[in-house]
UniProtKB/TrEMBL annotation:
Top-tier EC class: transferase
Organism: Nonomuraea guangzhouensis
Single GO MF descriptor: acyltransferase activity
Protein name: GNAT family N-acetyltransferase
Keywords of the record: Acyltransferase, Transferase
Domain N-acetyltransferase, chain residue ranges per copy: 11-172
EC number: 2.3.-.-
Amino acid sequence: MSDSQLSDGVVTLSPLCLDDLDAHLAGEDDQLVWWLNGGPSTRAGTEAYIRKCMQQWSDDGPLRAFGIHVDTQAALVGTIDLRFGLEDLADGQVNIAYGLYPKWRGRGLATRAVHLVCQYAATQGVTQGVIRVEPENAASVAVAQRAGFRYVTQIQAPDGTQLSCYVRDLAARSFNTRI
């Protein structure tokens, strides 16, 4: 697994690992279940997912899941992941998904995390980040917009869910983490 960490001095991203399991389970709330998970997490299911994420890092696979940490406390405050090579994305694009635990929302931490993963994705040859979000998820839409993403279209997910697509060019982009 990659030992690399990304930091802007406030937020640090590190590859998701088993040390994050308890904090992740404790941080999950109804909003994360509704917008991201599709159902409440179980310990066994979350452990299996984290092991898969660790294997993806080890194999240089298409999923790169990070824990979002606040430097001053090293607390896990959420997760953010990149998915490379999705068949419904163009070459050079990467999907970005994120979620924060309730007590950490509204502080600009998700926006900082998005800036950091965009910086990482650019080093991996990605030219455009894509955030797909349900239009009713106002907080996630706001993060995308604050992080410099622009609305481009609405699509229908395979399950019928309507998603708004936001994109941001990463090539030759100044990665300013001011929010």
